[in-house]
Amino acid sequence: MQEYVVVDLETTGLDPYKGCEIIEIGITEIKNNKIIRNYSRLIKPEILIPPFITELTGISNEMVKNKEGIEMVLPRFRKFLGDRVMIAHNAKFDLKFLNYYLEKLNLQTIDNHICTLEILKKSKSYKGKNKKLETACEYYNIKNENAHRADSDTKATAELFLIIKDEVFNELV
Questions:
Q1: N or C: which end of the chain has fewer CB within 10 A?
Q2: Using CA atoms, how far apart are residues 135 and 118, in angstroms rounded to an integer?
């Protein structure tokens, strides 16, 4: 049985090494080439969410003020992921944050992953103007109604993966 966990993060900035934090984690599960579950969890950061991040994501300080912190959410996420393959669009970004905070919490880091951005780079049939998730969704007619929110982005990434995986998947695993 093929099982994947598609992950997307919303963060307070671009670099956890400069104090940026995870404010939302989205998960979409794929089993046997079908999307079976999609959800997200808001996370209370230790810093205030910058206004430009609120504008981009719609996530405000008010929305996260009573949510659990990363030290509560991430251990449950890591246990949930287990040894399944994680999928992300631009996985390098998400893994930088996840592995930074996993190490900080003395939890096992993630190295078993697939990046849909890298699949698009290898695709001979994809003719989008760039490899952004938004562009790929437009190209393949995938609805991502709430872009820059983790649950919507993971569902769109899962749909993208299911469309493009067969073309180059064997080269990646």
A1: N
A2: 14
**Under a CB-based contact definition with an 8 Å cutoff, are residues 170 and 122 in contact?**
no
* Distance (Å, whole) CA 8 – CA 26: 5
C-alpha to C-alpha distances, 134 to 10, 15, 51, 104, nearest whole angstrom: 15, 22, 22, 32
Q: What is the pLDDT of residues 44-85, one digit of tens each?
A: 999 999 999 999 999 999 999 999 999 999 999 999 999 999
Residues 6+ apart with CB under 8 A from 151: 26, 27, 28, 38, 39, 40
List beta partners, residue 4.
30, 85
Question: What is the number of other CB atoms lying within 10 angstroms of the CB of residue 22?
Answer: 25
pTM: 0.94
Length of the chain: 173
Ramachandran quadrant class, 69 (left: phi over 0; alpha: psi -120 to 50; beta: rest): beta
Structure-token pair, residue 169: 């998947």
Q: DSSP assignment, residue 32?
A: T
Confidence of residue 129 (pLDDT cuts 50, 70, 90): very high
